[in-house]
Design brief:
This protein has 413 residues and is an all-alpha fold. It contains 18 helices and three strands. Strands 1-2-3 form a three-stranded antiparallel β-sheet, with no helix packed on it.
């Protein structure tokens, strides 16, 4: 392969077309790469490196590869993704495992694994997994089967420890949380294969042991003034603003998950009794919540003055020409991050600032106001208080009231 920047770009654009990207998507990548080539010529560089890409982004957009998502505009974030594909192809010779945009081709299971794949789908259905859980389990399996086919492996019994190591190497730069999730999902698949006599050896023993203790981290949460600042920044004079305000208010005031906000229906609101009744997407358990006054008026404002005319029963819909319900893959991060930028709220470098952090903030507020753990558990829709106890760590003020005197610890008996 031509090792110059132009040679690398040629191969990447070729791979994008092979991966099913639309010509519009390929053109966007090409425009970014043209700007990069001009910059490389100016600084006298003929080969691409991560350092060159970072310098280019910093000079042209005033951003950095290390800047957390949400601080950059969607436009700049897209440009960084384009450059990351160059690095990924340079390292691994593929863009298949890089972030993708544009229209995707439906997954086509390699013929030699189609029987195994169909049996695993049936297994997931038999186990009664939710749609979200089923997708999260199947996604890494698709990646793994594609990887096997690309490496000329056509039988499960041909998989060796080195095969799994090579696959995991593709994700070596991902976070520990992502790697832990990836290995746990593959472990389910590998156990299924062995228990159903589809392989002769226990493949899960080849997976790396990723140490990640969830309870060792304090959940990210918001300062009260930042939540107020966020909500006040939303322009409710336009339809999209009315929709975004109502969606975020459902998280801030009631702690609903993104999946439940996407799927909430107009018929889930009992206006006479002032309650909301939903079946949670994650647990499939029913949940009843009080219809708070500000939440109710925000929903009414959206229904009367913002929601497009549609027969769809889902409350929140897309405000694009095609319309329809919000995609199941949309975690509403884009909505939150857009209004964070407008409000001028910076994201701490080492903290998560997704929609889930607003749930944590609600839990902290209830803790600080003296709410009992079972009450918080019920509001957040947890099956038991063990899940909710994770949020106890964010009540820093309460922890400060429980100091340990070092002298008592080291006191001789």
């Amino acid at each position: 392969m031509d090792q110059t920047i132009n040679g690398l770009i040629h191969e990447v654009l070729k791979s994008l077309r092979q991966e099913g990207y639309t010509e519009k998507g390929v053109k966007k990548h090409s425009q970014t790469y043209s700007l990069l080539v001009s910059y490389a010529d100016k600084v006298g560089q003929s080969k691409y490196s991560e350092e060159l890409g970072n310098a280019f982004v910093k000079e042209r957009y005033g951003a950095s590869f290390d800047t957390r998502r949400g601080n950059n505009s969607q436009y700049v974030t897209e440009k960084i993704r384009h450059l990351n594909k160059l690095w990924h192809f340079q390292q691994y010779g593929t863009v298949h495992f890089a972030a993708r945009s544009g229209k995707k081709k439906p997954f086509q299971c390699p013929g030699c694994f189609s029987d195994v794949y169909e049996k695993f789908l049936s297994f997931c259905e038999y186990k009664g997994y939710t749609d979200h859980s089923r997708r999260s389990l199947i996604y890494p399996v698709k990646k793994f089967l594609t990887f096997l086919d690309a490496n000329n492996i056509s039988s499960m019994d041909d998989i060796l420890a080195g095969t799994i190591t090579s696959f995991m190497t593709l994700y070596i730069d991902c976070s520990k949380v992502y790697l832990k999730t990836l290995t746990s999902k593959l472990s389910v698949f590998f156990h299924f294969l062995f228990e159903n006599h589809l392989v002769s050896h226990e493949l899960h023993t080849f997976l790396p042991d990723i140490r990640y203790v969830r309870d060792s981290f304090i959940p990210s949460s918001w300062k009260k003034e930042d939540v107020i600042k966020l909500m006040k920044s939303i322009d409710r004079s336009n339809p999209v603003g009315r929709r975004d305000y109502a969606m975020l208010l459902l998280v801030v005031r009631l702690g609903l998950r993104a999946s439940d906000i996407r799927n909430i229906k107009i018929t889930d609101f009992n206006w006479q009794n002032r309650t909301i009744h939903i079946i949670q997407s994650k647990t499939r358990e029913p949940l009843e919540l009080p219809l708070l006054e500000d939440v109710g008026w925000a929903v009414i404002d959206y229904l009367k003055n913002g929601r497009p005319v549609t027969d769809d029963i889902t409350l929140f819909v897309r405000h694009s020409p095609e319309g329809g319900p919000i995609s199941e893959r949309n975690k509403l991060q884009n909505v939150l991050h857009k209004h964070m930028r407008i409000a001028g709220i910076e994201i701490p470098k080492n903290e998560h600032r997704g929609l889930h952090s607003l749930r944590s903030s609600l839990a902290r507020t209830m803790l600080e106001n003296g709410a009992a753990l079972p009450v918080i558990s019920e509001i957040l829709g947890h099956r038991n208080t063990q899940s909710t106890s994770h949020y106890l760590k964010i009540n820093i003020e309460a922890l400060k009231k429980c100091p340990i005197d070092p002298e008592e610890v080291f006191l001789d008996e």
